[in-house]
Design goal:
The protein is α+β, with helices and mostly antiparallel strands. Helices cover 44% and strands 7% of the residues. The chain has helices spanning 20-30, 38-58, 62-74, 93-104, 120-134, 142-161, 167-170, 175-191, 196-207, 226-242, 259-262, 304-316, 338-344, 356-359, 363-373, 389-396, 444-455, 461-472, 481-486; strands at 77-81, 90-91, 112-113, 292-293, 329-336, 398-402, 416-422, 427-432. It has a four-stranded mixed β-sheet. Helix 9 runs antiparallel to helix 10 (226-242). It comes from Cladophialophora chaetospira.
Length: 497
C-alpha cells in the first residue's frame, strides 16, 4: 500500500474535476452573464417580478405574521430587509432569508418547475437578497444578481431530475426542500464569485442539511417555511464556504452517505435508482429555467388541472352549473397521475374545519371552490370563505382517483379528467392535457398582469411602477440594494382574517 500523500490540496480547486460534483461546481464558477442567452435573462426578470409579487402580498397573512413575530423575538436586529415589514424591522442574513422565503411561499401563488418540482423564487430571491445585504461594504449589480439567479434556476431542477423528477414527492418528501439547498448554495456562490473548490464545499454543506416532509401539507403552517429552510441552508453553506469552511466532497455521487444514495433509499420502481449525469446534462445548452412555470391560480400546482376542467364545464354548460343547480350534483370524479393524486387527492375530514394550508393542497377544495365561486384566487382562502356549508357539502361529493395510464408517459403527467354526474342521470365530462400556465406557459404579459393584480391592494401605483421598472430593467441596476429598499415598506394583509 502506498503511503498517503502529504501534498495539501488547493482549497480553491475541486477535489475531482472529472466527477459530477466537480463538473457542476466548475460550471457554476465559470458561468458569466454573457454565457446566458438573452431570452433566458429576460424570462428570469419576469420570474423575479412574480416572486416579489408573491412575497409582498403574503408578508402579512396571518400565518406569515405568526412566523415573523416568532423570528423577531428569537433573533437580534440585523442588516437585512424583511419584505413588507418596514425600515425598522431588519434581521441577520439567515433569519431574513427564512422569513422572506416563507412569505413568497405563503399563498401557493409562486412558481414551480414542471418536471422536477421546486419553487425556485422562494429559494433564490431571499438567499440572494440576504447575501447582497450581508456585507454593507460590498456592492452587487443587477447583472451579478441575474447571473446568480439563473445559475440557481439551473441547479435546483437538475438535482430533482437526478432523483427521477416527481418521485421524491410521490414518496412523501417535500421535493423543493430536498433540492433547494443546492440551488440556494449555487446561486449565492455565483453571486459571491467563489472559486470552484469553495463551491464544492458550499454544495456539500448545503446537501447535508436537505430534507422536508410532505405531511406538512395537511394543515401545518410549517409547509410555508420549508422552502425557507432550503433558502437559509444554502445561504449558510455558501457564507461558510466563503470563509474557507470545508464541506463534503463529491457529495452527490458518494456511495456511503452521499446525497443521491441517501435520498433514493427504498426506491424500487427505478433502475438505476438515481441519475447523477442529469446534474450536468446540457449545462449551458439546455436551460431548465424554461421549465419553470408561473401559477395562475392560488393553489398547489397539481390542483390547477381540476380547476381548469371545471371552468371549461361551467363555460360549456352554464345552465347546469348555475348556483341553483349545484345542489343537484350527485358526484364529481377527478382523475390524476400518481404524483398529483398523492399530493392533492387526500380526503378532507368531514367534521374538522379546513385550514388555508390544507385547502390549498386539496383537490376536493379546489373543485368545490371553482364550482361555487367560479375562481380560485386569494379570497377563496380567507377565513370567511374556507368552511362554508355549501362548499363543504360539495367536497363530500368530489372523489379524486389515480389513473395509472397518466403515469406511463411523461407528457400525460399533467392530464386531468373531470366527470360530473347529476341526480337526474345527466353526466358531463372534460379533460385538459395541462393546466393554464403549463401548456402553454404563462407569457411575460401574463406575469405582469398577475403582478399588478396581486399588489393592487397592497402597493400604491408609484411604488408598484418603481419596483416593476427596477426588476424588468435589472441589468441596468448598479446596486441591487436599491431594489431591496423598494420592498421594505410595510404592506397590509390582502384577505379577510
Amino acid at each position: 500500500m502506498s503511503p498517503p500523500s502529504t501534498k495539501a490540496q488547493d482549497p480553491t480547486a475541486v477535489s475531482n474535476p472529472g466527477s459530477v460534483t466537480g463538473k457542476l461546481s466548475t460550471w457554476i464558477h465559470d458561468t458569466t452573464i454573457d454565457a446566458i442567452p438573452p431570452e433566458v435573462l429576460t424570462r428570469a426578470k419576469y420570474l423575479i417580478l412574480d416572486g416579489i409579487a408573491c412575497g409582498l402580498v403574503a408578508s402579512h397573512l396571518p400565518w406569515s405574521e405568526i412566523a415573523a413575530r416568532a423570528v423577531f423575538k428569537m433573533e437580534p436586529a440585523g442588516q437585512c430587509t424583511v419584505i413588507g415589514w418596514g425600515k425598522q424591522k431588519k434581521l441577520s442574513p439567515l433569519a431574513a432569508a427564512i422569513l422572506n422565503s416563507t412569505f413568497i411561499q405563503g399563498f401557493e401563488l409562486d412558481d414551480y418547475h414542471s418536471t422536477a418540482p421546486l419553487h425556485s423564487c422562494s429559494i433564490l430571491i431571499p438567499a440572494l437578497f440576504a447575501a447582497v445585504e450581508a456585507d454593507p461594504s460590498q456592492t452587487f449589480s443587477g447583472k451579478d444578481f441575474l447571473r446568480a439567479f439563473v445559475v440557481g434556476c439551473e441547479v435546483g431542477p437538475r438535482v430533482g431530475l437526478a432523483l427521477h423528477g416527481t418521485d421524491l414527492l410521490s414518496r412523501g418528501w417535500h421535493s423543493g426542500a430536498v433540492q433547494g439547498p443546492s440551488a440556494s448554495a449555487a446561486a449565492v456562490s455565483s453571486l459571491l464569485s467563489l472559486p470552484p473548490g469553495y463551491i464544492e464545499s458550499a454544495l456539500g454543506i448545503a446537501c447535508t442539511q436537505a430534507g422536508g416532509l410532505m405531511s406538512a401539507q395537511f394543515g401545518s403552517m410549517a409547509k410555508r417555511m420549508q422552502h425557507g429552510f432550503a433558502s437559509r441552508n444554502g445561504l449558510f453553506a455558501a457564507l461558510l464556504a466563503q470563509e474557507g469552511y470545508t464541506g463534503i466532497k463529491d457529495v452527490y455521487e458518494t456511495p456511503y452517505g452521499g446525497f443521491l444514495s441517501m435520498f433514493t433509499e427504498g426506491v424500487t420502481n427505478f433502475s438505476p435508482k438515481s441519475l447523477p449525469d442529469e446534474l450536468i446534462k446540457g449545462l449551458g445548452e439546455i436551460w431548465e429555467l424554461h421549465g419553470i412555470r408561473v401559477k395562475l391560480h392560488a393553489a398547489m400546482a397539481a390542483l390547477h388541472g381540476t380547476i381548469d376542467c371545471i371552468e371549461k364545464l361551467q363555460k360549456q354548460h352554464p345552465a347546469l352549473f348555475s348556483t341553483e343547480k349545484l345542489s343537484e350534483i350527485e358526484k364529481v370524479t377527478t382523475q390524476h397521475s400518481k404524483p398529483a393524486f398523492e399530493h392533492g387527492g387526500w380526503t378532507a375530514p368531514r367534521n374538522e374545519p379546513l385550514t388555508p394550508t390544507a385547502a390549498q393542497m386539496s383537490i376536493q377544495y379546489a373543485a368545490a371552490a371553482q364550482l361555487v365561486d367560479h375562481e380560485v384566487l386569494m379570497a377563496q382562502f380567507g377565513a370567511d370563505k374556507l368552511n362554508r356549508p355549501l362548499l363543504r357539502e360539495l367536497m363530500d361529493k368530489i372523489q379524486p382517483v389515480h389513473n395509472s395510464e397518466f403515469d406511463s408517459d411523461k407528457k400525460k403527467g399533467w392530464t386531468t379528467v373531470v366527470t360530473v354526474r347529476f341526480k337526474d342521470g345527466t353526466e358531463v365530462d372534460t379533460s385538459v392535457a395541462g393546466p393554464k400556465g403549463i401548456t402553454p406557459p404563462a407569457s411575460d404579459d401574463d406575469v405582469v398582469q398577475k403582478w399588478r393584480m396581486l399588489v393592487r391592494d397592497v402597493l400604491d401605483e408609484n411604488r408598484r411602477d418603481q419596483i416593476e421598472k427596477c426588476v424588468l430593467e435589472l441589468e441596468k441596476l448598479t446596486d441591487v440594494k436599491d431594489l431591496v429598499q423598494l420592498l421594505e415598506g410595510a404592506v397590509k394583509c390582502p384577505i379577510a382574517v
